[in-house]
User: What shape does this take?
Amino acid sequence: MVATSWLGFIVALILLAMPELVTTSTRCKEINKGCHNLSCSFQGPPTLNWRHKAVFVEAGSDTKVLGHDENDPIPLGIPFEFETSLFKGMALLRFRNAESDDKTSHVFYFNSRKRLIQIVIQGQFKRRLKMSELYIGGIFEQPLAYPPPPSFSKIIEAIFRRVAPGVIFDLGSSKPRVLALYAGSAQTLSIDAPGKQPDIMQRDLPENVHASLGNKFSSKSKRRKVLSSPKRAEEFEFDTNHVYTFHSYDDAMDYGRGAIRMPIYGDFDIKPFVGKQPFPISVVTSAGDTLFSSIIWHQDTVDTLDP
Assistant: This one.
């Protein structure tokens, strides 16, 4: 499971473990009605142009989408150019249960697959960066509507650190976050000379790192094992000469429905417990610099915001 879904998945597990919080849907509404933990300070997206139906996706912190009207949602299903202080390139976002700007490729990509999201980032770094410093996941701007007990969070963190040593896990703070090392969590990573990078609209994107990083990275699994460890990832760097293509997908987080698809249980609606705020997709450094950031508003959440 990639880091983009870990936050929601863990929230769902916590809530299922505390049934007194989810006894009725009325209780969920009451939590948000009271603006618990100040999570209702958002005013929603700046427009009513919901061409992607249930979601409105906009650029986040320090992310400029080139040639784009800020009052419109950023594209879904087709590549768009973006730039930050750290990176310049292209991105492609696909959400299975949201309207796409390219319906044909949307169907082609998701057909016969369990995947619910796809995130592709391709471009060049503006400065060198250790691979141990770059993370992907979610950073919320407000506390969760109902944060878990600290003791429970520590247990979950210990479990996930056994699987992914580089995970950053914090659900109880003023800015909840779950992050994992990007180079170690992406399903595929391709490092190419400019002009030799893969077409990000391909249904399957290649793994191509051994020429740049060494023969020990002869497979995706070996690359992910090595680069998910901060200590080992510190030995490698992103440079400014190559084009990097990060490809992530997931079959648990459903942004179109604001839910987590859990084994046996099915779809679990996490919007009421996240609060009156958007879902984030964050690619950031440990120092706080942004490679890419977007926020995903859901229609149900915006409809409940105070006027």
User: Anything to note?
Assistant: The longest strand covers residues 87-95. The first helix runs from residue 3 to 17. The CA atoms of residues 192 and 243 lie 5 Å apart. The chain has a mean pLDDT of 84.
